[in-house]
């Protein structure tokens, strides 16, 4: 399968008090056609910022460099006018908080129909009719009435479905879903995930799913990239990473998940805190919290090592194994 998206050597820097600090460094990943890639990690590790860079929604004084290749076009080099023709049309995004992402003063139908008018040339009447169809597709009851209501009149789950309807309006090639199930109860979470799976199967849409919930990743993703402090530390097929995690951070994330079967055991938290943007450690950024850290870990970051087919990890422990072989 061809790659829909290829991110190469992505760097993102934020300016704080006249100095630039690296929030995302040397990030590389790809998404194939019809594939779901999970991007996971703790809050503040750079997941959402990476997605905003892909959409070209980060503004000065933020610095973004590298390559974001979408269907053989580097999005970072495109003029803004050409990027607007892609954004919301070929690449769509479900933002993290539907209440703040939806415009409170516009009706639901207008917000769904906006991209249809802009990208598909539909009249306002045609766009409203299409919005009703989309609301039906995402499982919202009485869509003929909802299309004329405002966001504050809907529940959290319904607002999230509206966000999905907006994102899917133009049948995008790539859908970026930023924490689509956050703050929703478990029943609604399952419905939203089923809906996204159904849309992917029907339209062949590729999905970048950003989440900190490893249960969601296990249920919905084909591959996963684990991110820590602005760097991807492990990536590969979901089954391989869940069965045989290689990076100490990934192991820590999996060990911190409560288990409902077997003997009850105390959870194993990851000691310490995520480093400050202004005070990133030298070498491996996870070294201050890693139980296996060596001197070289604090001096220099490791390269990616392939432990098995398509399963890569960035860790000096595996560099030693490779040298021993």
Walk me through the structure:
With 325 residues, the protein is an alpha/beta fold. The protein has a domain of 68 residues. The chain is 34% helix and 25% strand. The chain contains twelve helices and twelve strands. It has an eight-stranded mixed sheet with strand order 6-7-8-3-9-10-12-11, sandwiched between helices. The longest helix has 18 residues. The chain is globular.
Mean pLDDT across residues: 90
Strand content: 15-25%
Level of helix content? 25-40%
Terminus-to-terminus distance: 32 Å
Number of helices: 12
The oligomeric state of the chains shown is: single chain
- Inertia-based shape: globular
Spans with pLDDT under 50 lasting ≥5 residues? Answer: none
**Largest sheet geometry:** 8 strands, mixed
Helix and strand sequence: EEEHEEHEHHHHHEHEHEEHHEEH
Structure class: alpha/beta
Gyration radius, in Å: 21 Å
* DSSP summary, beta strand count: 12
Write a concise synopsis of the structure shown:
The chain has twelve helices and twelve strands. 34% of the residues lie in helices and 25% in strands. The chain is globular and about 65 Å long.
